[in-house]
Specification:
single chain; Spore Coat Polysaccharide Biosynthesis Protein SpsA, Chain A; 11-stranded mixed sheet; two-stranded antiparallel ribbon; globular; binds uridine 5'-triphosphate
Length: 286
């Protein structure tokens, strides 16, 4: 039994696709359904049974720390215990910093150092699963039972797949998973090995960290997580699990996705009671 307790949430990227909004507000804090996008990842992690999240942030994005130190969902901030809001999905959070945005692989490697040499989940906070924690939960269960690293895959059209790491599939794995024997990152038109592309949930064993440690980022370029996964797929083995419609994945790192997520969550926003602030407390006391 290999229970994963820690998730790394990389949040140190530049968010160039959402400029100029991200010149003022980090994309991980742009609101979806009335709360910062990263809060959806924290909620999903807690609901899936993760006990601690390591957020990889940037010193250029102090608002992320500020949000985390005020969030009622965050149970222990920067290792100091605070009150738990009863009944809420709360979670321990640590923040580490990536000095330069040197790629997702580099951010995951930094977060992993804080987690220690064990299996971790990786959750991209700009990909929301509006359907809740079921996908992550089942990835964690697969890993606990079989020990293999597992990544989430979605089916994309031939036009869309060029924006993703396209998986080369080696046949069916256990319990509805797929065996992966490699990836082609952002394939040119007609070059994708399959229509299955990497999406933002991963449960990875320490063998992936070893490969990440050994990889050198090309000068002035980024360290790619897909490159590390490609190497692991051919050596240690890697499984894929397909997203289903009820997972309701939305990429809020682009304006159409952000808009789609906000429209989809409009109903939940309408039913939410207002959150009491300091001025409410004063007027209640008076
Ligand atoms: P993205 O590639 O979607 O984010 O990375 P980005 O680079 O910020 O976006 P664009 O392309 O410039 O618009 C997915 C996640 O990984 C984080 C991002 O913050 C995002 O949450 N990331 C990316 C890092 O933490 N560090 C990096 O060097 C790159």
């Amino acid at each position: 039994m290999n229970k994963v307790r820690i998730a790394v949430v990389p949040a140190a990227g530049l968010g160039t696709r959402l400029r100029p909004a991200t010149d003022a507000v980090p994309k991980e804090l742009l609101p979806v359904g009335g709360r910062p996008a990263i809060d959806w990842a924290l909620e999903e992690a807690a609901a899936a049974g993760i006990e601690e999240v390591i957020v990889v942030s940037s010193t250029h994005k102090p608002a992320i720390e500020s949000f985390l130190s005020h969030s009622r969902r965050v149970r222990a901030r920067f290792e100091g215990l605070t009150a738990i809001a009863p009944g809420e999905h709360s979670i321990r959070v640590r923040v580490v910093f990536q000095n330069e945005p040197r790629g997702l692989g580099d951010a995951v490697r930094l977060g992993w150092h804080a987690a220690g040499e064990r299996s971790i989940a990786v959750m991209l906070p700009d990909e929301l699963l509006l359907g809740g924690p079921l996908l992550l939960r089942s990835m964690l269960e697969h890993h606990a039972r079989h020990g293999a690293s597992i990544v989430s895959l979605a089916k994309f059209s031939p036009k869309e797949i060029g924006a993703y790491g396209s998986a080369s599939l080696a046949g069916p794995g256990r319990s509805g998973t797929m065996k992966i024997d490699g990836f082609v990152e952002k394939p040119a038109q007609g070059q994708a090995p399959s229509c299955y592309g990497l999406t933002g949930r991963y449960v990875l064993g320490p063998e992936v960290l070893k490969v990440l440690e050994a990889l050198e980022a090309p000068i002035a370029s980024e360290l790619s997580l897909t490159t590390a996964l490609d190497a692991c797929a051919s050596t240690s083995g890697l499984l894929g699990i397909e997203l289903i419609a009820s997972d309701r994945r939305v990429d809020v790192g682009s304006w159409p996705g952000w808009m789609e997520a906000n429209i989809a969550t409009l109903g939940s926003l309408a039913n939410k009671p207002p959150v009491r602030g300091h001025s409410d407390a004063r007027s209640t006391a008076a």
